[in-house]
Amino acid sequence: MGPPGAGKGTQASRVAHELGVPHVSTGEMFRDHAAAGTELGRKVQAIMAAGEYVPDELTVAMLEERLAEPDAEQGFILDGFPRTEGQVAALDTLIGEDGLDGVVVFEVDEDELVQRLLTRGRVDDTEDTIRYRFRVFRDQTAPLLAIYGRRGLLVSIDGIGDIDEVTERILSAIEAYDLRPGAIIEESEIPQ
Ligand code: ADP
Fold first, then answer.
1. With a 6 A CB cut-off, is 27 part of the ligand 1 pocket?
2. Which of 27, 63, 119, 168 is least buried, going by the fewest C-beta atoms within 10 A?
3. 116-172: per-residue pLDDT in tens?
4. Distance from the CA of 173 to the center of ligand 1, in angstroms?
5. Residues 27-43 pLDDT 10s
6. What secondary structure does DSSP assign to the chain, as a single string?
């Protein structure tokens, strides 16, 4: 988890590859639908372009279908999900309250992020939309960190630095906290 532009997509893909599990990115799935012109794609296109969240109903249905695929049986890296309280509840229902092994949070400076996003040049990366997406993240998604914090699942990562360096930090944290897919972590085992 982390604000837009924090590097979630890049890092999630690398870490998933490293662990041999699928990278499940709801943003990427929505972009694929939009590009393919599916019914879902047509529904979400304008929402995404405005920097709004797609309604939970659509997002959860899409995710549920993805996690039911055989390659997700041994685990997965979620990227961009959950983003709302409703999605946290839906995920709890899907995989159980103890279904997640860990939640990696990217700590990054906001000014740096705006610069990164402006150079990325995706269609939803105009300055107004970026600022709006930050606000939506602060209002709707940042509060979810407290929920996972109470469950003892949060691992905070410094997201500034080169891509390899950040990947190394995440992989070391996974090792230190024993967050491998399938590993069980007791709250008492989490280093303080
Ligand atoms: P970023 O990392 O820049 O926030 P994403 O690729 O994760 O971008 O998401 C792009 C857009 O897709 C979001 O702004 C939102 O419109 C939509 N989206 C992605 N994931 C979700 C989700 N879990 N719930 C609602 N909308 C989502």
1. yes
2. 119
3. 888 888 888 888 888 899 899 989 899 999 999 899 888 889 888 899 999 999 999
4. 25
5. 999 999 999 999 999 99
6. --STTSSHHHHHHHHHHHHTS-EEEHHHHHHHHHHHT-HHHHHHHHHHHTTPPPPHHHHHHHHHHHHTSGGGTT--EEES---SHHHHHHHHHHH-TT--S-EEEEE--HHHHHHHHHHH--TT-SHHHHHHHHHHIIIIITTHHHHHHHTT-EEEEE--S-HHHHHHHHHHHHHHTT--TT----GGGS--
